[in-house]
Write a structure and sequence with these properties.
Family: Belongs to the small heat shock protein (HSP20) family.
CATH architecture: Sandwich
Order of helices and strands: HEEEEHEEE
InterPro entries: A-crystallin/Hsp20_dom, HSP20-like_chaperone, Small_HSP
Keywords: Stress response
Protein name: Heat shock protein Hsp20
Organism: Sulfurivirga caldicuralii
CATH class: Mainly Beta
Strand order of the largest sheet: 1-2-7-6
Strand content: 25-35%
Helix content: 10-25%
Number of domains: 1
Number of strands: 7
Distance between the termini: 72 Å
Length: 146
């Protein structure tokens, strides 16, 4: 009897391995323990970098903070309820407003000095470059004069 490959099990295994490699969600610190929502995040590894995509619709770049300390990448911010919405008397809210927080333990190969971030259409993209690894090289041995 032949075994069928379960594509979802392969994707789940890949996701578990990426989380172990790039990091686990850490507990929020201080006042951020009161986070009202958690952005969905995709993490991918390319040959040159780790790329994190976080869904933060309605959050302007000025309201997002990214910090790196001791190998821990922290993303926090706030989606604010607009005053105009409060004044219109909206009767139903399904979108969550307030503070958010995510953190990830970075691998030792992460180049934390060159991390870049940008937002585009409600998606925060953080690129964590990998450190260049020293390539092995052969050392020539010279013949001494005798």
């Amino acid at each position: 009897m032949s075994r069928m490959i379960q594509p979802w099990s392969i994707l789940n295994q890949l996701n578990r391995e990426l989380e172990q490699f790039v990091g686990q969600v850490a507990e929020p610190q201080g006042e951020l323990k009161q986070a009202q929502w958690v952005p969905a995040v995709d993490i991918e590894e390319t040959p040159d970098a780790y790329v994190i995509h976080a869904d933060v619709p309605g959050v302007p770049a000025k309201d997002i903070e990214i910090n790196v300390e001791n190998g821990l990448l922290e993303i926090s911010g706030e989606r604010k309820l607009e005053k105009e919405v409060e004044e219109r008397g909206v009767r139903r809210f399904e979108r969550v407003f307030g503070k958010f927080y995510r953190s990830f333990r970075l691998p030792e190969t992460a180049d934390v000095e060159n991390i870049k971030a940008k937002t585009d259409h409600g998606v925060l993209t953080i690129v964590v470059p990998k450190k260049s690894v020293a390539k092995p090289r052969k050392i020539a041995v010279e013949e001494g004069e005798s």
